[in-house]
Amino acid sequence: MSSIPETQKAVVFESNGGPLEYKEIAVPKPKSTEILINVKFSGICHTDLHAWKGDWPLPVKLPLVGGHEGAGVVVAIGENVKGWEIGDLAGIKWLNGTCMNCEFCQNSNESNCPNADLSGYTHDGSFQQYATADAVQAAKIPKGTDLAEVAPILCAGVTVYKALKSANLKAGQWVVISGAGGGLGSLCIQYAAAMGYRVISIDGGEEKGEFVKSLGSEAYVDFTKSKDIVADIKKITNGGAHGVINVSVSEKAMSQSCEYVRSRGTVVLVGLPAGAEIKTPVFDAVVRSIAIVGSYVGNRADTTEAIDFFSRGLIKCPIKIVGLSELPPVYEFMEQGKILGRYVVDTSK
Prior knowledge:
The protein is built from eleven helices and 18 strands. It has helices spanning 46-53, 103-106, 147-150, 156-166, 183-194, 206-214, 229-237, 251-260, 282-287, 300-311, 327-336; strands at 7-13, 21-26, 34-43, 64-65, 70-77, 89-92, 95-97, 117-118, 130-134, 139-141, 174-178, 198-203, 219-222, 241-246, 261-269, 291-294, 319-323, 342-346. The protein is globular. GO terms for molecular function: alcohol dehydrogenase (NAD+) activity; zinc ion binding. It comes from Debaryomyces hansenii (strain ATCC 36239 / CBS 767 / BCRC 21394 / JCM 1990 / NBRC 0083 / IGC 2968).
């Protein structure tokens, strides 16, 4: 611990919606079951915006250091930790820690643990140079990995990979990704293509159309120009999508996806617009036997698998690196829907 500084740079907010302050704070000390990670890079997720606003029905820790896509180097290890060594590469995920004793944890559904500790929400996250993580839930990153590129995989990548698994698709079937041009969507396209699915992307604007096709999307529907999205999807797929991954934060888009999914298809909800509800006729849902499922973040096995896709060169996250001190403007870009790909902060700047 002697080489670890006492203070560090971080972005902190004292109240929901309050100033995002880039300032000096103390370096945290790892508990007996935690590791301390020197965070090199951290992805910026739309969830970070919700944490700052405090608009979810789950209170956040205040004051708070946000961030939950941190990639760095292990610099200290708690006395009861096994399986980690100083110098290992490690990732900070949304699930910072879980009880590992409840029925959900015992059945590999750690994300549903009622006592989960959440990075950048109930636990100070990765928008700082040093952060703690539960040793069991921290992600193992292969040596030699580009930490800036792998950072978004730790939340965005794992989240969409889990969502695609939840859709129960077969290779060759159609999957629609709603909100495909953003950080989650751009990764979802690549995972879907790598898993053998045929991809249709929905987003707005010609720039996003070119972008999603470059990532492997077979077709693109521009919601700003389409006169009938449901008809367009049904025409392209000859009857409707077998699965839909809703990563957008549009309540209308989520409900609409129930119309263009084909009989016995699966609509997966991922995006979390505050206060939103999904509406579909019960008669239609029953007669067509569609499934509407929620997909939260993945478990430890999902994380390992998602990172493996990345390590094999099948997934490349389109990133733009900014300094940690430049984080506040990125929140504004997210609010305005101007994010293309994923922003990643370099904690050294």
